[in-house]
Amino acid sequence: ASVRSVQLRNNSIGSEGIIALAHALQTSTHLTALEQIDLHDNSVGSSGMQALAHAFGASPHLASLTDLNFDSCGLDDASVQALAAALQQGTHLSALTRICISRNVQ
Fold it and tell me: What pLDDT is attached to residue 46?
């Protein structure tokens, strides 16, 4: 069975944990059916989003992603710029239909 959803909301995960998750997203071949990543209310921050954005742009096996939730993740302008760049470059993210970046006031 393939993983369809990663639900990590409200877990106090910091940037180091997010960077490790990004590495797993980029390298794991067991995530080809992954549709949703929910990191609501974790401290993703700028370095975490840079790593995630790189994974999103570089990983063709993430092509099934439809939903990303970064609500209340401590994102700043640089974080959102990294995400936007990954979306512009990421032909692998063509199934994406929802991105939540609400409540990221610094």
Answer: 92
Does residue 90 contact residue 57 with C-beta atoms inside 8 Å? yes
Q: CB under 8 Å to 16, separation ≥6 — which residues?
A: none
* Residues with Cβ within 8 Å of residue 20, at least 6 apart in sequence: none
Helix orientation angle between 77-89 and 45-58, rounded to the nearest 10 degrees? 0
Enter the pTM of the model. Answer: 0.92
Q: Is the pLDDT of residue 1 over 70?
A: no
Residue whose C-alpha is closest to residue 74's, from 44, 98, 54: 44
Q: Specify whether the CB–CB gap between 52 and 20 falls below 8 A.
A: no
Closest Cα to residue 106, out of 45, 50, 49, 48?
Answer: 45
